[in-house]
Amino acid sequence: MNKIIVTIDGWSSCGKSTLARGLAKELGYVYIDSGAMYRAVTLYFLRSHLDWSDAQAVADHLKDISLSFHQNEHTGQSEMFLNGENVEYVIRDLVVAEKVSEVAALGPVRTFAVAQQRQMGEKKGIVMDGRDIGTVVFPHAELKFFMTADNAVRVERRFKELYTKNPNISIEEVKNNLEMRDYIDSHRDISPLRQAEDAVVLDNSNMTMDEQLQFAMDLVRQRLKLQIQ
Ligand code: CDP
Question: Is 35 near ligand 1, meaning CB less than 6 Å away?
Fold first, then answer.
């Protein structure tokens, strides 16, 4: 059967990766967390104490970065590697989240990441989530979702996630971070977060994970049928 590309864009922490992972599993597709790539680049820049207002320094540093995804044997989940190091855990830290939207707004960083993302989708059979996947990375994708959820629900979800790793974290910090990232991501000059015209909106504020997966799978099946006809 022909394979398709499914894109999932949307606001911070609204469950994009949960849906993307679920869809990829059901379909036997590859899941790519494009946000992890921007987070890994940010981690590299932070560790290098890079002043990213210096365009030449950004370009030089990007040459030294190699990003790859590898499947964890125990969990079956894909994890982010930066120059051979597994950074899946550390890139979720608030220290990285505080800076990632600034770094992701830089033109050379986007060019670097988007080229690799497009390559990963060459053979289709991919579910990718992010901010510009349906608009810029794969504008001709067969199925696009734009996800959203109530702000309070999003803050609560991300707080619970981060609290298990760091009990010193406050709900205000998480709320401020999501608001700041959403603002920067949707107002930047290059590839701002916006809903693609042909995207299906999915507000999962009152949906269970299973409900959202079934909703999305119904649409995937419709698209796959269209592929066969
Ligand atoms: O999971 P969460 O919604 O918190 O965000 P993420 O997908 O891990 O993305 C982290 C950040 O990377 C976003 O806030 C954006 O600044 C940036 N990003 C982007 O610019 N373009 C993408 N395709 C994906 C992420």
Answer: yes
